[in-house]
Amino acid sequence: MKMHISLKFLCAGLLIYVAVFAFITPLSPALLQTNLTEIKPGSHTFELVGYNSHFQSAGSNALYLINDSTLSIPCTVTQVADESHLTAEVTLPNEMHSKAFAFVLNNDIDGTVFLETPLKVTDFTMNPDLARTTMPLFQHREAQFFNYPYQPIIMETIRNLMWHVPMWFTMFVLMIISFAQSIKVLMRGQRGGDDLLMPIQPERVRPHDNKAAMSAAVGLVFCVLGLITGSIWARFTWGTWWTRDPQLNGALVVFIVYASYFILRNAVTQEENKWKLSAIYNIFAFILMVVLLMILPRFTEGLHPGKSGNPAFSQYDLDSSLRTIFYPATFGFILLGYWMYHLRLRILKIEQAHENLLA
Amino acid sequence: MRTFWHRSLLFILLLWSSHAKASDGLEEYFYSSGKIKVVAAVAAVVMLGLLYAIWRIDRKVSALEKKLDSKK
Amino acid sequence: MGVSTVREIKILLQKEWKSEFRQKEHFAALVIYLLSTIFICYLSFEKISDGQTWGALLWVTGLFTSFNAMHKALDSAHQPQLLHLYTLATPGAVILSKCLYHAAQIAVLNVFSLVLFLLFFGDAVLIKMDWGQLITGLILGSTGLGTMLTFVASLAQRTGQGVGLMAILGFPLVVPLLITIVKFTRLAIEGVTWATNGYQLMLLIVLNVLAIVLSYLLFPYLWRE
User: Fold this and answer.
1) Domain boundaries along the sequence of chain B
2) CB of A304 within 8 A of CB of A247?
3) Cα distance from C65 to chain A (closest Cα, Å)?
4) Domain regions of chain A by residue span
5) Number of domains making up chain C
6) Between β-strands A62-67 and A101-107, what pairing exists: parallel, antiparallel or unpaired?
7) Considering Cα of A160, then A328, then A290, then A276, what sign does the dihedral take?
8) CB-based contact (8 Å) between C168 and chain A?
9) pLDDT score at A122
């Protein structure tokens, strides 16, 4: 299939857009931490640290300490040091619902931001039947600018979503092409039926073998890129370059399998044999990839989102601001992968035609 | 060349120190000082370079294909 | 796959068994290999104090023995009587009989290896073990390894490169099976219930079925010109 020039421009445009907006889009405002660690009935003064927040430029900050999402205790903001630091005061009653506390801050720039923090609770009377107080009367507001969602550990590294995940999608697309072409090789490269004595026609098989090999080659490049971006991300979020995650280790096995596919191709000298054997191995490799990357991680405890009780991928996906960059990134990289594959294929065809001319 | 190595070393050190705590790390520095625009520009330039390279290969391959067609 | 295929498989298995019996030194060599591997493990580990190592070591030994068993399979395919039979039978019957035969062979070797493990390392770490689960795992692991490696061996044989290529092609392909079987064995040693080990069991069955179906479907392309 020829790649239309408009698709090439689309690919370039999408990737440039992603390169720029993946970085300049800020993270949404959040509350980072507080120096309040222990609470008991009475008055407390504490400091609150924000992230990307606008405490100072906002007109006023409404701050509440919320207990068990039913009891809200207003805090008085006594001093705003700068955009991300403020000091506040709160007076706590004797009775509480439970030991779960969270801070809620609302202002007209940052919208509503939460901080769930473990607090050491002493001297309160726990009364689950305590009357609910009316929730603070502010509208739940979104922040006023386009931004990424704030995730506690991931934080700024969420940008890597735009590079890491599309690599795997692209690899999958290319491997599916490789798989389909391998099946075609087997179908066309088979002597059988009525014409058992008919020789195999190389010109009917070779194009499919070329396609299978070249898409696997480009897919392998994207596999390596996915592993590298994943490793860097793992260092920042999980604290190590490499770890015991089924998807991570599965990806490495996929890399080894497709690398052996090329070793197999180089080991067989007779051409018809090479087509057949590598096509068979490719089909095995593809099934293995599906098992390793899509089935096994669901049954093994791991660290990737969306698997075995970890927050699902759709959680990020639902965020509309992430989607406006993530979808173009995925589409752009798939187009880039297809383009690269197409180029490799054309170069190979030229080489083969050149050899034919010389022969 | 020496300055190049010095700068790379500095960059690696910066990178190293950045994951201790996200709040006073590299990202915060880039975002608070507006230098993230430089980062984005560099990423865009890298991307452009990559796309230009592929574009050039595409052109060359097309030329070769034409040459081959005329020979047949 | 009709009655005739079943008959063909039966005949092929008989022939395979006869040829094995005629060349007893092949099997003897495998047993010696197994014995020396486990003895080396015994000497180098001295004592295994946790179930996980016990199970993992059992399967690593099993994996290497299976690969070795396949080397013999590559050789025995050159026997003229068998080759003649293969040309008469349907490819499906050939691959199924080969898979069955090697699965059985590997299962026997693994049972033997289990006995040697018990002899050398004792059963101190196996107090809580569920024997039913262990034996099930042993059988399913052997069939899985047997099927996959038989197929890879036939593929490697066709390349004309033989043994060296087989290891390169085979090792990554058996990784999922190996991960699952090691985990299954570990849980069996920990003495969990069948229900807790259900996922692993299901995965093992799925992998076995996948290997058999893929071999059955693809072998015709490999076998005949």
Assistant:
1) 1-33, 34-72
2) yes
3) 21
4) 31-126, 155-190+199-358
5) 1
6) antiparallel
7) negative
8) yes
9) 80
CA of C33 to nearest chain A CA: how many angstroms apart? 27
Judge: A24–B37 Cβ closer than 8 Å, yes or no: yes
* pLDDT grade for C83, boundaries at 50, 70 and 90: low
A96 burial type by CB count under 10 A (0-12 exposed, 13-18 middle, 19+ buried) = buried
Pair of tokens at residue A281: 């191995």
Which residues in C lie closer than 8 A to residue A246 (C-beta atoms)? 179
Q: Any CB–CB contact under 8 A between C158 and chain A?
A: yes
What is the least distance, in Å, from the CA of A346 to any CA of chain B?
A: 7
Residues of B in contact with A357 (CB under 8 A): 71
> Do B and C touch (≥3 CB pairs < 8 Å)?
no
Give me the residue from B31, B47, B57 closest to A16, CB to CB.
B47
- Residue A170 in this model has a pLDDT that exceeds 50: yes
Residues C68-95: what's their mean pLDDT? 72
CATH number for the segment(s) A31-126: 2.60.40.1930
Q: Do A319 and A211 contact (CB within 8 A), yes or no?
A: no
Distance, in Å, from the CA atom of A347 to the CA atom of A282, rounded to the nearest integer, reads 22
- What tokens were used for C140? 């399913």
pLDDT at A133 over 50: yes
Q: Are A111 and A142 in contact (CB under 8 A)?
A: yes
